[in-house]
Amino acid sequence: MVRVAYMSKMYAPTLKELPAEAEIASHKLSLRAGLIRKSASGIYSFLPLGYRVIKKIEDIVRDEMDAIGCQEVLLPIVQPAELWRESGRWDDYGPELARFNDRHEREFCLGPTHEEIITDMVKGEIRSYRNLPFTLYQINMKFRDEVRPRFGLLRGREFNMKDAYSFHTTQESLQEHYDQQAAAYGRICERLGLDYRPVDADSGQIGGDVSREFMALADAGEAELVYCDCGYGATTESLGEDFDPSIEHSCPKCGAPLKLVRGIEVSQVFQLGTKYSKVMGLTYQDENGVDQFPFMGCYGVGVSRSMAAVIEQSHDDDGIIWPVSIAPYQVMIIALSSDDEAFNYADSLAQQLVEKGVEIVVDDRDERAGVKFADADLLGFPLQVIVGKRGFEAGEIEVKIRKTGEKHVVALDDATTEIKQLLDRL
Ligand code: ATP
Ligand code: MG
Predict the structure, then answer these.
(1) What is the mean predicted confidence (pLDDT) over 39-68?
(2) Which fold has domain 25-316?
(3) Which CATH superfamily groups domain 329-425?
(4) Cβ neighbour number for residue 249 with a 10 Å cutoff
(5) What is d(CA 273, CA 390) in angstroms, rounded to the nearest whole number?
(6) Which atom of ligand 1 is nearest to the CA of 300?
(7) Which residues line ligand 1 (CB under 6 A)?
(8) What would the pLDDT profile of 173-209 be if each residue is shown by its tens digit?
(9) H/E run at residue 80
(10) Among the atoms of ligand 1, which is closest to the Cα of residue 157?
(11) Which of 162, 265, 272 is the pocket-test mutation for ligand 1 (most atoms within 8 Å of CB)?
C-alpha cells in the first residue's frame, strides 16, 4: 500500500559542507540531497531517498529482463577460491579481487562478477540440449577493490549490479539472445531518461565484435567514445592505437564525420562463447548423446552507477531533476501555511493523490518558505505543489514543474485531476 510521506518524519539529512573529494555534480548532489553516505573509500550506505531510487531502477531492469524470458536468482557474494582457480581468474584478476581466508584457512573472494559461481551452479544440471537455452540473472552487490575509487557511485568498490548469464547450444542462439539483451539495455536507458549511445567495446582477450557498451553521455564520464547519427559508435579504446581521436575521422558505416565525446559506461553485453564452459567442464548432451560445451553470454547493468549517471545528466545549480520513472517521490506538496484549514487541505490532497497511485511527500516542517523551496529543488521531485495561505484563501494552489520551472495556478477543486495530468505529460 502506498502511503503519504511527511518531511518532518523523513530521514533525509541534507548536507551543506561537502567533502573536497566530491568533484562532480552527481557525487555532490547525492551527498547534499541525503541519498548516500560514505562508510569507507568507494563504500556507501543508501539512505531512504537514495534507496527508493535504487529499487525503482532495479524494478525497471527486472521488468526488461523478465520481458525477454530471463529468470531471477540470487547468487552468493562470498565465493570459494577453487572455482576461480578452475577458471584461471584467481591468478589473472589481480588485486581488484578481494580475497580472504575463513577460520579453517580456506580461501574465498568477494564476487566482482559471477561467471564462475553460475557456471558451477548449472554444471551437472543441464543434461540435455532440450534444457537449453536459458538465462538467469541476479541483482546483487559486487565488490571490486578498484585502484582508484572516485566520483561517488560512479566508481565505487562495493556497488549494485544486475548480471545475467545465458546458456546456448549454438552461436546463433547466443547471438539471438545477445541482440535481445542489447535491445533491452537500450529500453532500460530510455526508461531511465538517459541520453545514451550503444558502442562497440573492447572485447578483451576474446577478440571479435562480441561486446557492446551503453554509454550515458557526460563530460564527467571516464570513457571516450566516437559516434555517428547513423547509429555507429565505438569506444576509442576499442579502436586501438591507430585511431587517433584528435584527427578528424569519418564514420566507417556512412562516411559522415564522427563526434568525439565522453561517456559513463552504464551497461555492457558480452559474448563469452565456450570460454567458461570449457575450462570449468560444463557440458550437455546433444541430439546424438555426445557431450558439448554450451555457448555463454553475460550481461551487466550498473544499478548504482546508473543512478549517478541520471543525476550527472539531469540537474541544475539548485539540485537534482529526477525523471518521473525513478524519482523517489513524484510530487512534493509544500504546505506553507500553518493555518489549520490550509494544512488540512494539503493533507487531504495528498491522500487523494496517493489513492490515485501518485507517490507524495508533504513538507509539513516548521521551516521558512525559502528553506522549503530550496530543499524541494535540491531533492528534485518532478512536481512541487505549493499550498500557501493567500492562494488557499483565493481558492488556488500553485504547481511548479521542477524541470522547466514552469508554474501553473490550479483551482483547489481541480487540483487532483490537474496534478495527475501534468505528471502524465512529464
Ligand atoms: P569499468 O570499465 O568502468 O571499470 P567494467 O567494464 O569493468 O567497468 P563490467 O564488468 O562490464 O564493468 O560491469 C558491468 C557494469 O557494472 C558496468 O557497465 C558498470 O555500469 C558497473 N560497474 C562496473 N564497475 C563499477 C564500479 N567500480 N562502480 C560502480 N559500477 C560499476
Ligand atoms: Mg564493462
Answers:
(1) 98
(2) BirA Bifunctional Protein; domain 2 (3.30.930)
(3) Anticodon-binding domain (3.40.50.800)
(4) 16
(5) 68
(6) 14
(7) 113, 144, 146, 155-156, 159, 161, 265-268, 300, 302, 304-305
(8) 999 999 999 999 999 999 999 999 999 987 654 444 5
(9) strand 78-80
(10) 27
(11) 265
